[in-house]
Amino acid sequence: MEMRALVTGASAGLGAEFARQLSADGFALVLVARDESRLRALADELAAASGIEVEVLPADLLDAVDLERVAARLAADARPVDVLVNNAGFAVAEAFHASAIDDERRMHELLSWVPLRLSHAVLPGMRARGRGGILNVASLAGRLPSGSYSAAKAQVVALSRSLHARYARDGVSVTALLPGFVVTEFHDRMGVSPDVVPRAGWADASSVVRDGLRALRKRRRAVVSDWRYRLALPFLPLVPDRLIAGTGLGGRLDG
């Protein structure tokens, strides 16, 4: 039986790595991002390497019409989607008091509303088939008091937990992946220097994706990636909120 996964933000970074690892596992793919040329180059690479079917679906998820096209693809009975990876995202680099409110709104729409809309679209079919998985790329920032990015990612964690609790009985697993700093284009797009933390604090995209897919297969509701951040997690509540907020690091974590 052919299995199919849809990945948002698939043109680079974690999204492209999700596509590569899913294709290596034998999944047919639907790749979603704004940059059609990069999507097609990745589709050609994966089709040549694995012989899988790769569908390219260019879309700006902040455009209502494009978002509904992706939602309709997820709801389609023909060539159904078995795994949804909600990965698309960006962060606002400026501090909250100095940021443009339109940028804040766009960020929250992409990080919070889009995963909710796409999960809502795919769930009915998954329930009817009695199987499926949704992997929401959140962030360790969702557990830190640092900026509105943290607030948006906290909502993704809460949504994932709620959906997992409600739909696991129907055969649908929902997992939140909480990365820390990851080596991708994410920080370049924000204009943030990689020197914000020591190199030892950066995780490799391939290990983060493996952690997320493994957790989804094991039907876990959340996973912190990678081992360095899992070790640090129990100590975070001991750090005063004002210190974490003062560093600004929470809003710069990958997700």
From TrEMBL:
Chain segments annotated as coiled-coil in the UniProt record: none
Domain of life of the organism encoding this protein: Bacteria
SUPFAM superfamilies reported for this sequence: NAD(P)-binding Rossmann-fold domains
Keyword Acyltransferase carried by entry: no
InterPro entries per the UniProt record, alphabetical: NAD(P)-bd_dom_sf, SDR_fam
Assigned keywords, A-Z: Oxidoreductase
Gene3D superfamilies hit by this protein: NAD(P)-binding Rossmann-like Domain (3.40.50.720)
Record flagged with keyword Oxidoreductase: yes
UniProt similarity note: Belongs to the short-chain dehydrogenases/reductases (SDR) family.
Name of this chain's protein: SDR family oxidoreductase
